[in-house]
Amino acid sequence: ELLPEFYYLPEFLMNSNRFDFGVTQRGYRVDDVQIPKWAVDAYEFVRLHRKALESRYISENLHEWIDLIFGYKQRGRAAIAAHNVFHPLTYEGEVDIDAITDPVIKKATLAQMHNFGQTPRKLFNKPHEMKKVPELAYDNLETADVTALQWHVSLAPPLVIPGCTDRPKKEATGYGQPGEVALIKMDVPSGKSFGPLGRISDILNYQDKCYSVMGNGRFWGASKERYISWCEVNATIWVYSTTSSGLAYPGSIGNNENPHIGKLVSTFENLHIGGISALTTTDDGKQIWTGGEDSLINVWRIQKKKSGRYVLDQMETLSGHESTVSCIALSSLQGIAVSGSNDGTIIIWDLGKKSYLRSLNHRSPLTAVSINQNNGNIMTLSASLVKLWSVNGNRIAEKNLETFSQPTCGVATACEDYQHGILILIGHLNGQVTLWDLLYPGDVDNQTKERHLCLRKTLETGKRVAISCLRLDGQQRHLAIGDVSGSVTHFTSAEQVYIRP
To answer: Do 332 and 346 meet the contact criterion of CB atoms below 8 Å apart?
Structure first.
């Protein structure tokens, strides 16, 4: 119960490196841990443990566990009544090691403490209060308790109405039911678009407003006050400030073409041999990762001088791809970077050490890679094939999208494994966005008993143009969609309309 790996790391039950642990006395080879039949495999075993841990029952009874481990049932008559007693040496303060003079007894006492362990320090002398979980039972949003709804929103899966741990039944038809994916198309909050007129390449939701960058551009360090633009021809990047108007975009006729270009602050040239094909930044804005036609990834440290201009220092050059680097994704929370190439390879890098971890493969050039910020799962999109991988490189599921319009971009949400929510969003050439869920072996509506991606929802933007950018806000309740015509469409989970102040 105190091993975190039981709730998030199935690989600890698997002999992935094929170590030789010998055989048992009965002649069985020691390999993967044997999993109960009800769990199918290690992934399902750990997922169900986590689902149970996050359940309402655990939340409402967690205080009893606290009483046993840290509270009044740790010692005394309450501990005896709860059958929660251990060897005296395991309790803090029961033995004064320094007072033991016999070296043999002292060594034996320390050995027993180190091997058996010790109980945690007692923190509470009275029964711990029960966690109060607001009731949330309703048929549709109009009958929901707004206060309880607001409390449960942070626990709900991405883009799923709070209040249900499983998917709604197929025969359910009411709008706004718990567990349903109900998105309302909203007017785009007033913001600005920066860069040259063209496709939307990045979107930032900031204080209820939506900002976007067009062309080859990206907001830098999740700030609306600056963005980076790059050139696919001569490996040049430009740093712009959006807080003041200034020079026109390189190659444009003048500032009158687009009043929201911003002020050109710094220019850096010849960052690759050939053009820059992919660019992203870390969340803190201190590093820029560029991928080029030369098949290399360059990692840069960027710093601002007192003059207001920036300096760029190369930290590392990462090699491993054999063709143009087409996409890069970073996750500071998971400590990894993922890059995709036109040669069909995906490489996972250590974000801190800037070193190679492992490779994955597709048969076609990569269109997009994306990282689930909560569990590290990796989404890869190549031609019409989307795959979902674990952070350790094990394939979880895949889906061929040949029957759909050509995929043009994709993004992974922050959905946890134990949640029934949207895991992947795919933008298509015809202007649609498809939302994908993952069916698990234990799910009632999974006939195959294997993990596979299932279509949960299709969104219509109202325009028959290719989708170029998909962005979710931090709470995973708002979805912004950019297309190649420079338009942004905004969808909001239905419950957000009801809990607005």
So the answer is: no
